[in-house]
């Protein structure tokens, strides 16, 4: 662990949404999450309503404003529904805030302590790209349900679809801003550059993007940062920036140990994925070598495969989960490979471009 910036892992991701009650239903019935905690009018909290959704070690918090002057209402008006806060669990929230701001981060929430019968809960937050906050959560001395004010709902159920943890969280930033934000994570939170994809790696006939993957010193927190690159058409990153009204979270990758089972269940419950042409599966074994899964089954489900020197990975991407073409999810199963599916970038981006054409945005 980094000496000046220890991080224990992702704590949760908070989504600002227009209707958290309905979002919670989608994540429960379509993605297999359980609503484990709630805070709102019924628990005596009058500003917002929040639903904590859990599956495996993944915690997603869906919050909605109860009045138009609330920050969440402003954010939803501007950006639509999406991830607004990346919360990291740290041993000492005040220390994390002081270190990050001393090294150039702009403070958003100064160190704050909340206490109830269950103990002491501390947090703080800094600004990152767009209007994204990085929140530092210290729950070592807190035994309660998620955070003060929250009341217990259901237990994590066996209705899950096998999602285990957050693998990575990707941000899209404006042209020319990727290096600035990569440097921001390195400077303020001791992240390192894991890999850099230039426009040569990620280009199709129409559009291109560049990406730098930043990770914390333990390797648990991976935050790739994309920026658009010039091409014949509009980069999918530029399409995102146009509809999100600025930088923000493009996709969240959720890990599973059995992607075939997970994706089968997700498809049965109505989750829509990017369509991959059947030609992708011709000669797949020649491209990626022997894998344990049946290629016919992968083709049926639209799952992509990539291999590097450490092993292989299986991945699939949903359609955007809101009307604006902004946030989507990736489902990933790692079988040795620690990459991001570089070998699939071309096939993937061509699939995204077919969707962009349908939206009139290429
Ligand atoms: Fe990804």
The CATH class of the largest domain is identified as Alpha Beta
Helix content: 10-25%
CATH architecture of the largest domain: Roll
Shape: globular
Strand order of the largest sheet: 6-7-8-5-1-4-3-2-9
Number of strands: 17
Reported for the largest beta sheet, the result is:
9 strands, mixed
Mean pLDDT: 94
Structural account:
With 362 residues, the protein is of the alpha+beta class. It has helices at 20-29, 71-79, 93-102, 178-189, 236-244, 259-268, 284-288, 295-301, 345-358, and strands at 9-16, 34-39, 48-55, 58-65, 82-89, 107-116, 119-127, 133-138, 151-152, 163-172, 192-197, 208-215, 222-229, 248-256, 304-308, 311-317, 328-335. The strands form 2 sheets. It has a 9-stranded mixed beta sheet with strand order 6-7-8-5-1-4-3-2-9. An 8-stranded mixed beta sheet has the order 11-12-13-10-14-17-16-15, with helices on both faces. A hairpin with an 8-residue loop joins strand 2 (34-39) and strand 3 (48-55). It starts with 8 loop residues before the first strand and ends with a helix. Bound molecules: fe (ii) ion (FE2). Fe (ii) ion is lined by residues 168, 170, 251, 253, 330, 340. Fe (ii) ion (FE2) binds next to strand 10 and strand 14.
């Amino acid at each position: 662990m980094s000496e000046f910036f220890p991080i224990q892992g992702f704590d949760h991701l908070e989504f600002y949404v227009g209707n958290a009650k309905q979002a919670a239903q989608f994540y429960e019935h379509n993605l297999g999450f359980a609503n484990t905690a709630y805070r709102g009018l019924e628990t005596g909290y009058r500003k917002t309503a929040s639903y904590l959704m859990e599956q495996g070690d993944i915690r997603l918090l869906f919050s909605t404003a109860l009045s138009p002057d609330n920050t969440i209402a402003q954010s939803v008006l501007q950006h639509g529904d999406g991830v607004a806060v990346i919360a990291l669990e740290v041993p000492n929230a005040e220390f994390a805030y002081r270190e990050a701001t001393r090294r150039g981060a702009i403070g958003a929430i100064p160190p704050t302590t909340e206490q109830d019968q269950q103990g002491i809960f501390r947090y703080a937050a800094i600004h990152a790209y767009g209007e994204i906050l990085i929140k530092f959560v210290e729950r070592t001395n807190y035994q309660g349900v998620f955070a003060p004010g929250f009341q217990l709902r259901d237990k994590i159920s066996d209705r899950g679809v096998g999602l285990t943890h957050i693998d990575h969280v990707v941000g899209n930033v404006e042209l020319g801003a990727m290096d600035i934000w990569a440097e921001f994570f390195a400077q303020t939170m001791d992240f390192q550059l894991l890999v850099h994809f230039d426009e040569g790696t990620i280009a199709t006939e129409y559009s291109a993007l560049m990406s730098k993957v930043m990770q914390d010193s333990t390797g648990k927190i991976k935050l790739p940062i994309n920026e658009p690159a010039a091409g014949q058409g509009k980069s999918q990153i530029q399409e995102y920036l146009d509809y999100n009204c600025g930088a923000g979270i493009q996709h969240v990758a959720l890990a599973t140990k059995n992607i075939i089972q997970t994706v089968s269940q997700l498809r049965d419950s109505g989750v829509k994925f990017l369509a991959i042409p059947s030609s992708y599966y011709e000669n797949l074994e020649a491209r990626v070598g022997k894998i344990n899964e049946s290629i016919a089954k992968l083709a049926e489900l639209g799952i992509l495969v990539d291999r590097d020197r450490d092993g292989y990975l299986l991945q699939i991407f949903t359609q955007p989960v809101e009307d604006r073409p902004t946030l989507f999810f990736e489902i990933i199963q790692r079988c040795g490979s620690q990459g991001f599916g570089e070998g699939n970038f071309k096939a993937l981006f061509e699939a995204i471009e077919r969707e962009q054409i349908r939206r009139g945005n290429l």
